[in-house]
Every structure is written in C-alpha cells, then in structure tokens.
Amino acid sequence: ERRPPELDQARLEREPEPEEKRAPYVVCKLPERPAGVEEFCLPEHDGEILAQMKQVLEAEAPVSGELLCRRVMNAWGITRMTAKVERRFAPLLEKLPGSQTRWEDRTFYWSRRRGPRKYADFRVPGVPGADDFRRDAEDIPPEEFANAVRYVLERQVGLPKEDLVREVYRLFGF
Which of 7, 116, 129, 157 has the most other CB atoms within 10 Å of its CB? Predict the structure, then answer.
C-alpha cells in the first residue's frame, strides 16, 4: 500500500523518540598530574589548565562550573576549593568557548555543539557501557531536569506531582 508523500514527510520531521533523549553521563577522566596548589597557581600553567577545562567541557557539557573545576582539581591532586584556587579558575572560566546559563547560585557551561536552546537530552548514571556515575543534584542544569520531566510525562500522563518528582529523581540515581 502506497502512503501519501505528506505522511512520509511528517514521519521524517517528527521529534526523535523519547528513548533517544536519554543518554549515559560520560565522565571526563583527565590524566593525573599531581602538583599541589602552589604549582597549580603559577601563570605558566594557564594554557595547560585551560586545555583541561576545555576537555571537560567537551565531554560533559552542560556542566556546572563547580563540577568542571573539580575535575581539573582532581587531576592536579587538589582536594579543596580554597579562595586561592577559586581566584585561579575565575579568569580561565571566562575564556571557555560556548555559552553559560545561571540557575540560582550555579553557572552552567555549554559547549558550542550543545547549547541550552535546543538541548533536549538528559543524562543518567548506570547505563551499560558508561561509568556508574551519579552527579549531585546541584550539578544538573535545570534544562536537563525539565527534559527528564518531559520524558516521564510522555510515558505517564496523569502522574501526580509527588510521583513525578520521585520518578525524575530516580532517573538521575537519587
């Protein structure tokens, strides 16, 4: 049976299936370079630190500034975000490509290829083939939570609010 061309075209133009919006969260693992705070703060390491930050951004965007900095700190063997380390990151965060969004007291960094306007995905821990990694709720951008809410509601239309919240949190591993 032959279908009218407009039906085929409509099928091609529809949004992807909801399963396509759910993806594993990929953790950027930077090579270890233990050096401590004093060496980390030397200006001659600007290029190296910025390159590490870009690497995290490309792998994990959208990513909170706090999580992005933690990934780089871990590579350098730094365990605490002191005022000195925070001042070190501030000018380098401004040099990152892509865009930024703010939510409450958090800044989220987006890569050029994953901007906030068209972002329709959400990333979950524990998906086969991915690290079993769960982010803190504060490190998940609101756009990603909204996409997870949409995903759940597409499957369970009449879900009470409490159940919706519980189901979304479950998706993120809480």
Answer: 116
Closest CA to 55 of 89, 82, 28: 28
At CB < 8 A and 24+ separation, what contacts does 82-86 make? 82/37, 84/37, 84/41, 85/37, 85/40, 85/41
> Which tokens is 116 given?
């906030």
Q: Could you report the per-residue pLDDT of 123-154, keeping only the tens digit for each?
A: 998 655 445 577 899 999 999 999 999 999 99
Q: Measured between alpha carbons, how far apart are the two ends of the chain, in Å?
A: 49
For the stretch 11-59, pLDDT in tens is 334 344 445 688 888 899 999 998 999 999 999 999 999 999 999 999 9
Reduced to 3 states (helix: H, G, I; strand: E, B; else coil), residue 113 is coil
Is-contact 66 139, C-beta < 8 A? yes
d(CA 126, CA 79): 25
Rounded to an integer, what distance in angstroms lies between the CA atom of residue 59 and that of residue 53? Answer: 10
Beta-bridged to residue 124, according to DSSP, are 24
